[in-house]
Amino acid sequence: MSSLKEINPISTNTENSRFHPLDQLTGDEIMTVAEIVRKGVPNLNIVFNTITLKEPKKELMMSYLGWDTTKPRITKIEREALVVALEKPSMKCYEALVSLDNGQLKRFEHIPDVQPILTMDEMFEVEELVAKDPRVQAECRELGIEDMSCVFSDPWAIARHVTYKGRSKRMMQALMYMRTCEDDNQYAHPLDFVPIIDLGLMKVVDIERIKPRDSKFTRPTIPLEKHNFLPEFVGEENFRKDIKPIIVQQPEGVSFKVKGTEIDWQKWNMKISMNYREGLVIHNVSYQDGAEKRPLFYRISLSEMVVPYADPFTPHNRKHAFDVGEYGLGLCTNTLTLGCDCLGSIYYFDATFNDHNGKPFHVPNAICLHEEDAGILFKHTDYRNGRAHAVRSRRLVISQIVTVANYDYGLYYYFYQDGSFQYEVKATGELNTHVLAEDETPGPYGVMVAPQINAQYHQHFFTMRIDPMVDGANNSICKVDTQRVPHATGHPNNMYGNGFYSESTILKDTAEGQQTANYETARFWKIINENRIHPYSKGPVGWKIVSNHHTPLFAQDDSVVGQRAGFAKKALWVTPYNENQIFAGGFYCNQSDGDDNVEHWVKDVQSIQNKDIVLWYTFGVTHLPRVEDFPVMPVEMCGFSMKPCNFFMANPGIDVPPTNKGINHSKLASKEKENKAACCTKL
């Protein structure tokens, strides 16, 4: 523990009642926190890695939110900020806890042998440093590049490096590219060397060349053919001419209500927040079921993701990006553009983060909220009299889009009128490319998407942290497998061979809570409340969780990425609630060794039945790139859904009124005349 200078509390002018306990820090609060820390440790030369809200303890929030009625309701919770700072030039990591209610530094301590998240400030500094480095310039001259303004780099986390082991040094690697003109696609011109940077020294300490493997050449030439997708390169004359406008209108306004960051929509209620790391977080999700407001989920977020690449040779073996834990989805979030990123009647939420000086920077339109048509909610046609009754569905969309170097990810939370929930990732952006010599092949680890341009095979794993409170704080997880009747056709108990049944197993501890997908049994899992029995099904009420996007981790279990990203080895992990276990790859994920992740947490077997539990749910894609993914990649979608399973008394969307054809302005494409107003429930 570092000694703190005794100072008088700083007046924060923060009235606790102005804020919900989960509201992100304002710009003024960020500056106040930085001032408090500086005054508390005046002898340290620190830069502010992150300044963020310290979320209150769950036990306090359950009372504050009204779910815990066993004691008097808590109406005021201390507002605190968590600070991660780096001391220069040692790059030692410190954590601070600041009370915004009384303006005091409550804790300041050195955290040994860790490296916190990489920031945009550092990435810009590294790119500028690399371009000015004499050895980098010499490499570029040898490749025929004289103008260093044409050279660009993507600073990446270094994972683990055989020469620079451990976390005592804060390191990065830079993947190198060039452009032939402003706004040219740099991934069409990859370079063949990787500078290694020591951020403490702010110096290029090594340069690694990537040698051609099956080639007569010792070094590749730079591919100069342009592969661009921006409109000025494509040319207006080459655009399709047969696209007519699609206009989304809500002439009577939106169906949702927003109060601060609390959202009400179609019996759903929730609160949202934004932080530097997970980005968008959904809190305190409930559903109004008749006269009863039923709690569903305390907190849902994208806890971690990893993108491991397949090429086993240096330096490609270090390419496994943890986009949450190494870069931060909040820090990488886009400002969304009306009518482009989001279509319709849009409500935006802004975000505020900090720079290295402890000053706020503002991201307008960081979160998009809107409604959209979602096809048919339900329909039935009575074949006897021809009467058809159709009700169209709509969904509430809460989304953000992040850019992490070459990749862009659209992250979408969907809520539906039938009480179901869906999370979807839309991966797009550009492939990470590697240059090949003129006669070189990608081998078995990639595909040539253009002459001399190799797009390496890789995977994308996304791990959600789901903190359920289905009808109460204590829940269990049930595995459901569908099995064939174990009797051959002709057996008295399976005479015609068509029999199958479901088999449910409640997971009792963290050993059983480590689950893999099984398509042979159509396996899914349910979050159940064993303390509330459904009157019809005679079983616990619950919510099922399913995904068609499970894929195994193809790296070896004991590989570097296998050790660091243990969460990707299973489709589901279940742990008892622990307020310090928020990130599946560990709080200090950057340059980590894997000793603080979900795989490590379950080594000690603990009970998970009828407890306050957390689900770590992993889905993803194995991406074997196509030529069609270049120069810019069409969206690749993956995700999961949760649905009520013997939770309600009937279809909860049955009270959604039928759609009016006149209101939604549907008409025959072959006729310009509008249809008369009519419901979709007539003969």
Automatic annotation (TrEMBL):
Keywords: Copper, Disulfide bond, Manganese, Metal-binding, Oxidoreductase, TPQ. InterPro entries: Cu_Am_Ox_Cu-bd, Cu_Am_ox_TPQ-bd, Cu_amine_oxidase, Cu_amine_oxidase_C, Cu_amine_oxidase_C_sf, Cu_amine_oxidase_N-reg, Cu_amine_oxidase_N2, Cu_amine_oxidase_N3. It comes from the Eukaryota. One of its GO terms (biological process) is amine metabolic process. Contains 1 topaquinone per subunit. Residues 116-209 form the Copper amine oxidase N3-terminal domain. Topaquinone (TPQ) is generated by copper-dependent autoxidation of a specific tyrosyl residue. The modification 2',4',5'-topaquinone is found at residue 407. Belongs to the copper/topaquinone oxidase family. Homodimer. This is Amine oxidase. It comes from Phycomyces blakesleeanus (strain ATCC 8743b / DSM 1359 / FGSC 10004 / NBRC 33097 / NRRL 1555).
